[in-house]
Amino acid sequence: LSILVLHGPNLNLLGKREPGIYGSLTLAEINHLLAAEGQKLQVSVFPVQSNHEGVLVDTIHEAPGTYQGILINAGAYTHTSVALRDAIAGVNLPTVEVHLSNIYRREEFRHHSYIAPIAIGQISGFGVQSYILGLQALVHHLRKDKV
Ligand code: DQA
């Protein structure tokens, strides 16, 4: 199995960006931990980060055939982007939504996700563990593990 990991806007700043909210790990460190978890689960993990909505949409369009599932932290586009949601719905690949912070205990404008209704599920609030748990959940879903 190959999993596309999409990181949206501003996640390239991780490590120095509001560490009280997002933690001190860099995006490279998060990608490294995901690759290690991927190895344990025997799946390939390909990370892509973009600050550009259209690039994220294009990357999703190109995913079928190469990837069997998507793990996405859409950053602020979570709360604004019908285009990202439509792209994911359009390619019909199983998708898990993750957030480092708990979006429901933050500002009201972060409480709504356009992605959530078309995702298998969402994991929010566990820092880098949100990504690890999300990857595990996605792989379990793809393998149809019944545990
Ligand atoms: C985030 C939460 C979003 O509200 C925010 O815009 C981000 C990061 C998270 O991982 O906690 O950029 O997706």
Brief overview:
The protein has about 150 residues and is of the alpha/beta class. The chain has helices at about 20, 25-40, 55-60, 80-90, 130-145, and strands spanning about 1-5, 45-50, 70-75, 95-100, 120-125. A five-stranded parallel beta sheet has the order 2-1-3-4-5, with helices on both faces.
Question: Which SSEs are present, and which pair or pack?
Answer:
Blueprint: E1 2-7, H1 19-22, H2 27-41, E2 44-49, H3 53-61, E3 69-73, H4 82-91, E4 95-99, E5 121-124, H5 128-143
Parallel strand pairs: 1-2, 1-3, 3-4, 4-5
Helix pairs in contact: 2-5, 3-4
Number of continuous helical runs: 5
- The rounded distance between the terminal residues' Cα atoms is 19 Å
Tally of DSSP β-strands? 5
CATH topology-level name: Rossmann fold
Give the mean pLDDT: 97
Along the chain, the helix and strand elements come as: EHHEHEHEEH
Present as ligands are: 1,3,4-trihydroxy-5-OXO-cyclohexanecarboxylic acid
Protein name: 3-dehydroquinate dehydratase
Subunit structure: Homododecamer.
Enzyme class: lyase
Catalytic activity: 3-dehydroquinate = 3-dehydroshikimate + H2O
